[in-house]
Design a protein that fits this description.
Length: 120
Amino acid sequence: MNSSKFFTLKEARIGNNCPECYSNDSLELTLKQKLIETKFYKAITEETASELLCHNCEMQIFPVRWTDDIERVVDYHLRGLNIKTKSTKLKPIAWALITLGILLLVMVSLWAIGGISVAL
Ligand SMILES: [Zn+2]
C-alpha cells in the first residue's frame, strides 16, 4: 500500500485573466507539496504542484493554457513559499520491525557464542 498525495501549502487569489472565460477576478492558485505515505514511513518530497481554478467558469486551468503573465505570478508565489524540507518519518510498525530484527540478531549471536562455548 503506497500512496502519494499532495498537501496544500498556500492558496491565493490572483488578478490575472482566466484563459477560458476572461474574467479577471476569479482565478485561485493552490500550491501543493507531495507527500508519500507507505505502511512503514511517511516522507515529504521536494516536489511541488500548482493548480489553478477559475471560480467564474468553474474550470481547472491546466499549465498548457497558462499565459506568460499567469506563469510569472505562479513563479512569484512559488519563490515566496516556505517549502518544507525533505524528511522521512518512520511509523511505529517500522520501529517495531527494526527492534525485532536487532533482538533476533542479539539472540542468534548469543546462541552462536553459547554453542561455541558448549563445543569447547
Ligand atoms: Zn474562467
